[in-house]
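Schema walk-through. Below, the input block comes first and the output block second. Nothing else is stored per chain. Lengths vary across the set, and this one has 237 residues.
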Amino acid sequence: MKVIAHRGFSSRAPENTMAAFREALEFGVDGLEFDVHLTKDGQLVICHDASIDRTTDGNGLIAAQTLRELQQFDAGRWFAPHFQGERIPAARELFALVKGSTCLLNVEIKHDTARSAPVEEAVVSGLQEFGLVDQAIVSSFDHYRLHRIRQLEPRVRTAPLYTAALFKPWQYAKTLGAAAVHPYFRTVTKDIVSGCHDSGILIHPYTVNEPEALSAMRGLGVDAVITDYPERVGKTI
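--- output ---
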């Protein structure tokens, strides 16, 4: 069972920062999950929320500010004083960090982003520029965006995110041309895992944090877990 660090090693460092990604890579995770938005000047940046209010000392929408403006704000001190100086990273910073590695990149396109924003084009362009097409998987709760990704670059793997207990999710994944599904972990059953695997679909539940849940996912045979606590996976039975 592979380990994908949710927003980087977000239990040890401020989420979606280069510090969190470096911490996860040093720990030895198999993949990094992170969220992307477009700035006012069309730059792809890494942040979970559409605004910077929660995770920086600034405020306002990402889409209303340039990359230069956004990177004036501190994105680390809220987590712990020694992370002061961390900034909202441009996606290309992370792409450059993992280039040449085997690290899986799970790029989540946020569902609250305006459909008119060319996020898909920016994601595909970045992956192509850094030679990361084959080691990326793009996920979203907005499944229309996944369809668009496949139109732009058929080699990029996609995975629908969902919270409902979907019936035969592997069949739905096939209609999207998706390579994987990313379900809420409490909806995962043995039959779902078997159905996915029989159809050649990977299954990566999110956000699996408690030791009991991690053990349960391992027992069900999922391919990877998306977790805030990578160190707990090795302690599961």
